[in-house]
Amino acid sequence: MSKIKAVTVHGGHNPAGKIACGASDYIDESKEDRIITKKVIRLLKKNGIKAYDCTVNNGTSQIDVLRKICEKCNSKTRDIDISIHFNSADHQRILDRKTTGTEVWVRDTTGVKGDLSKRICNQLSKIGFRNRGVKTTSGLWVLNKTSKPALLIEVCFVSDPDDAALYKKNRNVVAKAIVQAILNYNKEH
User: Fold this and answer.
1) pLDDT per residue over 32-76, tens digit each?
2) CB 54 within 8 A of CB 9
3) With bands split at pLDDT 50, 70 and 90, how would you rate the model's confidence at 1?
4) 95 burial class (0-12, 13-18, 19+ CB within 10 angstroms)?
5) How far apart are CA 133 and CA 119, in angstroms?
6) How many CB atoms lie within 10 A of CB 26?
7) Which of 92, 103, 137, 173 has the fewest C-beta atoms under 10 angstroms from its C-beta?
8) Which residues are within 8 A (CB) of 106 and not within 5 positions of it... i.e. 6 or more apart?
9) What's the pLDDT at 2?
10) Closest CA to 7 of 55, 44, 56, 35
């Protein structure tokens, strides 16, 4: 694949407080995925890359949210789809100065999605998040139902106070890291 010229970006859940909203603990996934989505889109456009927000705010169920997101993505002319998420595990009460970390999910690591996913993990780990790496699965709707390569970014863990504190101090840097990964990819292709 040549350069990435157009991207869809979306927060992966309904808004906070609605059915099928994201995880919530030290930070709220549904609020933060929208913040990062907007920042990433703004930075992509500033760097000459077309970017579309395919976030859904009116899903009637989890499947409805996912179906509507994929319909929005598939309606755009783009090179790649990016789904913004925040992970969750068991609630951690103690700050231990270790982050649970960041990871990116793809169906497989071939082509642009594998290359870009690795770059995103590397950029986010420079902020201080543990690099959990690129993971593969055939079980995520958005990775299966979009017609272009798709990746799902788990920025950090809402359930880890160290992740949350690092994220809150670095929202702008998180968005810049995701965009920098795309710009670095484009420099080499």
Assistant:
1) 999 999 999 999 999 999 999 999 999 999 999 999 999 999 999
2) yes
3) low
4) exposed
5) 10
6) 19
7) 137
8) 113, 114, 117, 134, 135, 136, 143, 149, 150, 151, 152
9) 86
10) 44
Mean pLDDT of 173-183: 98
The CA-based dihedral angle spanning residues 173, 176, 182, 184, taken in that order and rounded to the nearest 10 degrees:
-80
Identify residue 57 by its one-letter amino acid code. N
Asked whether 149 and 80 are in contact (CB, 8 A), the reply is yes
The answer to whether 36 touches 155, Cβ cutoff 8 Å, is yes
* Helix 171-188 × helix 111-127 angle, to 10°: 140
Tokens for 163? Answer: 């992740």
Structure tokens at 66: 């996912």
